[in-house]
Amino acid sequence: MSVKKMKKDELELLSHKDITNLLLEEKGKRNTADLFKEIIKLLDLPASTFDTKIGDYYTSLTTDKRFILLEDGTWDLKSRHTSDKNILIDDEEDEDLEDLKEEEEDETDEEDFDSANSDEDDEFDDTDDDLKDLVVLDEDELELEQ
Q1: Which residues does 19 contact at the CB level (< 8 Å), separation at least 6?
Q2: Does 8-86 carry CATH code 3.30.200.20?
Q3: Distance (Å, rounded) from C-alpha 24 to C-alpha 35?
Q4: Do 59 and 69 contact (CB within 8 A), yes or no?
């Protein structure tokens, strides 16, 4: 059934993301503003809704796995795209992944260093010497000493 043919009551039962899904199925890829304006029109919402809720709407699209943001700034259904050539890649995410890989490599190097020196550390393990004079007192014994 077409979104335009649906009654307002039926549309109000759907989330904005579900309506977006229906619009993209019918009309193909569209930009964020056009999609949200269409939803506002279908639901007879006040025009001020666009300015106050467009950010939330964009965020909801980015977190929904059904949608994909293309290089030209339009949204489409992810099911229509099988290759990564049209996907907008976030350079910051790539940098974060590279940083994470470098940190993991550094940790691996430290572990290798630690394991190579573990025999030497055993010779100098004096933690038992530090604890030999330790005495545990209960509350009654503490009161007696004061």
Answers
A1: 3, 11, 39, 42
A2: no
A3: 9
A4: no
